[in-house]
Amino acid sequence: MQLLDELPMYALVVGGLWCLVENEKDLRYGKALPLVATVVYMAMCGVTLATDRQHTTHSVMRGFLVVSFALFFILFFYLFSAVTAPDIARRLREMSGERPSSEEERRISSLLGILPTAFYQFVAALVCWLLDNFYCAILSSLPFGIPYPQLHALGWHVLTAVGLYNIFLVLLLQRLLVEDGGGTHTLRRGMLLLPVLVKQAALKQD
What we know:
- The chain is mainly α and about 210 residues long.
- It has helices at about 5-20, 30-50, 55-95, 100-110, 115-135, 135-140, 150-180, and strands spanning about 185-190, 195-200.
- Strands 1-2 form a two-stranded antiparallel sheet.
- Strand 1 and strand 2 form a beta hairpin.
- The termini are far apart.
């Protein structure tokens, strides 16, 4: 059952990498790349879900998933910081005119700030996961009647869910810019104070 929350995370990060690489309206690598990635992903899902946890094949595939996810995760954030963030900022400023207003600069900064937030949420989630795994005995017998903090459930699952949501927002903004020049979007706080992308009626100019 644990794989059912890990495999979708893997799919989102791999799909996110494709979005960052294909940052123009015309596909540079064609339709074969996402098709091959999808077939390989479905095969990995089938093998890991169909084999017993103690089976060698399962262990090998699980190890491959963990290592490749870590590499893809690092590559995703690196590509966004080094390539995609400057590209998004350039596109947004071009749509705002030659001299974007201070309000526009704040809007652009808030949009670009989504991914660093997601990164820190994933780091915090990983710390919770490690603490829960390595210090389970200590956390189960805290002094003064302090209850077990449920770091795996409340830390890992909640923080990764929010982090994945923020990553999805970044990818959505990037695809809007690539596909139809959707530079008139801004952030608002929605349910549970989560950010949402909303389309402005018009951009304000100085």
